[in-house]
Amino acid sequence: MGKILSHDITKIVKDEFKGPAFKKGHIIQTQDIEEFLKLGKEHVYVLELEGGEIHEDEAGSRLARAAAGAGVRCSQPKESRVNLFAECAGLLKINLDALDAINDLPDVILSTLPNHSVVKEGDMLAGTKVIPLVIKEEILAQAERIINKAGNILQVVPFLEKKVGLIVTGSEVYKGRITDTFGPVLSEKMASYGATVIELAYAPDDAQVIAEKINHAIEKGADIILVSGGMSVDPDDVTPLGIRNSGAEIIKYGAPALPGAMFLMAYKGDVAVLGIPACGMYFRTTVLDLVLPRLLAGDRISRRDIVKLAHGGLCRACSPCHYPNCTFGIGDSWN
Ligand SMILES: Nc1nc2c(c(=O)[nH]1)N[C@H]1C(S)=C(S)[C@@H](COP(=O)(O)OP(=O)(O)OC[C@H]3O[C@@H](n4cnc5c(N)ncnc54)[C@H](O)[C@@H]3O)O[C@H]1N2
Ligand code: MOO
């Protein structure tokens, strides 16, 4: 590290502030000599940077600026820590390989929220910090090379205005024997993400009718179709068959998330068709809360995405529910 010059604080008088010890390019470790005197400190230290060295604050700022992609803004440095904030609401996307590579470098850290977190405008997403007081330019250049190759480390993808079709199954609901609870629960959830429900249809426990309702919603322009109930093992649980009969390709039936085990993910062309088990009505947070934000941010969900839900896919069933400030969905799941 560059030279550190020690000065007897009692000898520092106002005109000496302009003296050679404090010339431009030197860094005084305290701004407030008066405060130092009050505390009974006897020395003030002045850092003289050598070539190829960067002060922690400048280094922290450079690292944060490089890491920030679209929808992310940086704070001013404070003791080299620079925070990154969401400029808009949406889904946080992190390049995890690049994040690992940055944190594998000496003397710098970058710490983030979990990948695929749903964020609001102004939310803190990450913090970067430089560990020593000065850092070698070469380390920072290496960090910038890693980030340039990756494009950025983190970005916020705003939610798209998706059109949603809801198909509520169950003969007891269809025949009016019980009042529909699923429809209102799912409609409210869609509204909270800014998605528009363009169709709310009811189907009895009949796979062919369910298939027809799915195709009707697609014809009406739905981007996402949620088919509720009938996802379990009873003979009249025919929603998975209905989804298959619609011509959709089943990506995975059964998700390693609890609640959400009986979830089904399918696609008919670009239209996502989701089978939502009854837990989606009884629990505030389920597998749907993990999958839906990604769909609304424009991601196509793969079989591997569902498989990777397992680690961190067990809800702690807290009362009250603290999601997303908990471990549900934060394991390797969405890497
Ligand atoms: N023997 C087994 N039973 C269950 C299993 C299992 O593996 N073996 N899985 C359990 C899990 S996990 C879940 S989740 C649920 C999935 O239930 P379904 O999606 O099949 O839901 P239904 O059987 O259609 O309904 C359950 C319950 O909820 C009422 N319901 C359904 N839709 C509505 C609605 N729109 N409005 C109001 N109420 C509704 C329905 O009448 C039933 O009472 O299965 C577990 N069981
Ligand atoms: O395991 Mo069920 O699909 O969650 O409640």
TrEMBL record:
Residues 165-297 form the MoaB/Mog domain. InterPro entries: MoaB/Mog-like_dom_sf, MoaB/Mog_dom, MoeA-like. Its EC number is 2.10.1.1. The keyword Transferase applies. CDD domains: MoeA_like. Keywords: Magnesium, Metal-binding, Molybdenum, Molybdenum cofactor biosynthesis, Nucleotidyltransferase, Transferase. Its cofactor is Mg(2+). Pathway: Cofactor biosynthesis; molybdopterin biosynthesis. Catalyzes the insertion of molybdate into adenylated molybdopterin with the concomitant release of AMP. This is Molybdopterin molybdenumtransferase.
